[in-house]
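Async update (no meeting this week)

Hi team, since we skipped the sync, here's where things stand on the single-chain job. The sequence we agreed to prioritize is pasted below, unchanged from the tracker. I ran it this morning and attached the output directly underneath so nobody has to dig for it. Comments welcome in thread, and please keep replies under the output.
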Amino acid sequence: MAELNGRSPDEAEFVPTYEIAPGIKPGAWVFAPKSRGMATVNREDLTANRLLRLPSAPIRVEQGDNITLILENTHYFPHTIHLHGVDHAFSNNDGVPQTSERMTMPGEQHVYQLKPRHAGTMMYHCHVQVQAHMMMGLQGLFIVEENKPNNWVQTFNVGAGKVRAPSKGVLEDYVQEYDMHYQGIDTSLNNLIQTSNDPRQLAKKMHRIYDITDGSDDYFMLNGRSFPYTLRESLITVEPNQHTKLRLLNGTPDVIAFHPHGHKPTVTAYDGVEVNPANRIQRDVFTLSSAQRIDLDLYTKDDGLNSYGEGVWLVHDHAERAITTNGINPGGNVSQIVYRKYLNKNAMAKVEGVSLMPYFTPEYYQGEVPSWTESDPYGYWADVAGRDVSTLKDVLLIIVLGMLFGVVLLLLKALYACLQGLINKMTGEQS
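Output:
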């Protein structure tokens, strides 16, 4: 277990640091695969090492295997693991302190034993003070793959997103597979760990003072990042006439409305239970309640139903606040379905709209950059309080406006002279 962007008595900065978007480093906790080495890159670079990140890593096991899952509590609070939706025995194995087991205290470990009989997309999460610990990030996908001969599953998919080694069961029907874990961050909870490093103070603030019924998420993430970082890590890259398996988990406390542009996927499973082929629904908005999982078949046949054709198609939660970052749009859990012909040499989408570069700056999400700055060279929607002359366009604009002003003055002078001449002529005739 690990803490991200927490407070340390030894450092002025948060340790280890982890950005979900440019300049944004909220506090979080994660379940992480056991490894060796430091939590940071090195003693000077306090960035979290690549295994310590949001979301908690998706875990894959095979149906019918004997699984031993060991929780080593390297944290300062007690925790457990609840295998949500996964077939497991009750006694000392369900992760609920009030019913099945004692909490795993700091420095202790707990062994979970299971032999899942049913394949599907499940999840795991801490069941101690769930309203706080699960929302802090102690949650992840737990996938039970179908039992197949010589089926070497990819045990951890750190960072979620594309599964590098899909199982034989998946490859029978799909070309590729993606894990998509949606999460939210309420800074009034998550950033409490940045106010103190005393577990007693944090226990009171997080478990007795913080009230989730008054809470509201400020940041919205897909696979541990918010836009524009989702474009670097969570693109869904496809080819025409291809079946792609998507596994979605809603780890937020609210309902999400998953909406892919340009496509209508087909739902194949809810909460790890296969949908009868005759009852499978095809649509462009799928609603997921908190902790719900769905499996989708994204078929890229250009027939006007499954797909509208090749391009760069947006994917986002259509609950509109989820496409913002602390209220700034574009942000949140926005990503893209990108056909390979639209990828550049850096594996980024070749878009035909405005430049995305302003969104990769902390200033944009601090509200210091006007929303349409790339489409507004004359500053029609710029801040009212002054505008710096900083580009050639600004200089040319000032020159042109000065010339126009001069022409207007000359015209007014000529008009005045003409009127004055008429008046003098009329006065002379009357004389």
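Quick observations from my side:
The chain has seven helices and 20 strands.
Residues 388-431 form one domain.
Reply here if anything looks off.
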